[in-house]
Amino acid sequence: MMSVLRRLGARLGILLVVLSVSGCLGIRADESVRVGLNVDEPSPDPAYNVPAGPTPGAAPDTIIRDFLRAEEVTAERLAVAQSFLTTRMVAEWEPGISTEVIDSADSVVISYRGDGWYDVKANLVARIDAAGRAVTVTPGSRASTSMRLERVDGQWRIGQADADFGRWVRRGNLQQVLRPQRIYYPAANGRTLIPDVRWLPVTRLATGLTRALIGPPPAYLEGAVRTGLGSARLSVDAVPVDGSVATVPLIASAAFSVLATRVDAWGQLVATLTEAPNISAVRVTLEETPLQVPGVQPPVLAAAELGFRTLDPAPGVKPVVRVGDRILSVDFDTLLGPGVDLGTLPSAFPRVPATWGRLALSFTGSELAAVGDNGTGLARYRADGSIEPEGFADRLTGPAYDRDGWLWVGGRPFDKEAQARLWTIDSNAEPFEGSGPAAKPIVASWLVDRLPIDVAFPVDGTRIAVVSTDATGKNSRLDVAGVARDADGTPTTLAGNTIRLGTALSQIREVVWLSPTDLAVLAGPKGKAQPYLVTLGDVITPLGGVEGADHITTAGGARNLAVRDVEGHLLVRAGASWQPLPEGLSDLVPPGR
Fold it and tell me: Where does the GerMN domain lie (predicted)?
């Protein structure tokens, strides 16, 4: 009974998080993101708008418009859409190869090219590839395709289309076709499950989630995660769900003779499939024989039963605030309370001169880092003193600590031939004297010709978010990539590929992780930047309500998101508005962000 209660509690928590960051998959028309798709908890049996078939005697442009509406369904409900096609086109058409999300049916423009061919264009919001990866597009982008119509028994039907045409879906109807889902992989080191996000069909969700897990992990997580399902295959076409228990039937292979592989596979399947609203437990079979893991009794309700654990912020570690040159340790709730007396707060570190800023606090709260105003100096502070590592770069980003105590910073190397744009320093190394350990370069091929301007880590430390510009300081972008480490946890490299998020936003300036799947960014012109929430599924939510911001941070998740406005005031998110923190605070620094 307690397991069931915990499961219900966890599901409620997920729902609250999703509702708090629901927004739109799409672009801005001007300086604000237009709210469109609401990403709410999916129902087990979604309601569908079932379109009508072709109208007898309809003109070619009407056939095309009605077809575009009819194909806004999942693969199991394509019969009506197929009725607009010739027999040959039904056999050739693969709607799942790509989904182009368009703004509305009113934006569709059809023009006759000749020889039966029609050009079709619409305002494009986003593209979702066959793997379920969504990418927002820049403002003003257009979806375009061509279709050739033919007469069949006196009626116009679509006989050909561009080879890359999959389907077009209006943004308001996307949730009846695809929804963002978490897909889990074990971290390469340890017993933690790391989420990826894919847009998957809402029907046959158990099967879709399982198929998304089978095969290698996504390229942007290479070296950072592993999988127990790399060579797995389903023995049937669909994953059955009996009551609330999903049974995943796999074909036996040599890989499953290894206990660690069986544990990883089952853990991934449990964490991923129980994201579906109608699944609360998972069984796994190999050739109809239950998967064997010592000490585990199927069905499994949670990955914790297989030894996986959730990584939370360090218990008892408080954020620090800056008041002038003093660094004070404070409970965040105290800051929100009435009449807080900053003078009574304990000083956690030596005084930090005003010429040192962009502070970061280690995961354990025992060390603070700061960057000099000249962009070349990096200082580390502990309760009993401070040291400055030997210089290695200029135009340094603000520093960031990962969970394992590695201090990260980006910049432009003094050695103009060097390819590194990121460096790490082991803050666990002793003694804490002199200049400390040297900064270790980390080369990422996708950063070689760019300049990082901000870096951030989630609590798990498995991925890094990097905001960078080109060499001229323009064309900013937000990339997320996995961090590969050796057996001791030392960072060795970043994945050679990234996922790029928030491409609909211009001039991204800063980023902070709010959860394993959600980030917050500042984007916009200097002095007018605004905060946005961005998910790994590229759902973007504008927050607004700030007259320009120059810094963003969090004391824990979206509910404790904080910004500093251009006048130097710290504000914390309170519902749909912002609550000012006490006067005199210039920085709020949470641990391990």
Answer: 206-295
Return the H-helix or E-strand segment holding 534.
strand 530-535
Average pLDDT for runs of 10 along the chain of length 593: 39 36 43 37 51 93 96 84 97 95 89 98 96 90 97 98 96 93 97 97 95 97 98 95 97 94 98 97 96 97 97 90 94 81 85 96 97 96 96 97 97 94 97 96 96 97 98 96 96 97 95 97 94 95 90 90 93 90 91 86
How is residue 223 written in tokens? Answer: 């070296």
Q: Which two tokens stand for residue 493?
A: 């490299």
**Going by C-beta distance under 8 Å and a sequence separation of 6 or more, which residues neighbour residue 119?**
110, 111, 112, 113, 144, 145, 146
Inter-residue contact 453 to 406 (CB < 8 Å)? no
3-state secondary structure of 571: strand
Query: What domains, with CATH codes, occur in the chain?
Result: 42-176 (3.10.450), 178-306 (no CATH), 363-501 (2.120.10.80)
Total-model pTM: 0.90
Which among 42, 35, 47, 43 is positioned nearest to 18, based on CA atoms?
42
* Cα separations in angstroms, 3 against 9, 193, 294: 10, 19, 20
Measuring CA to CA, which residue among 578, 591, 8, 98 is closest to residue 336? 578
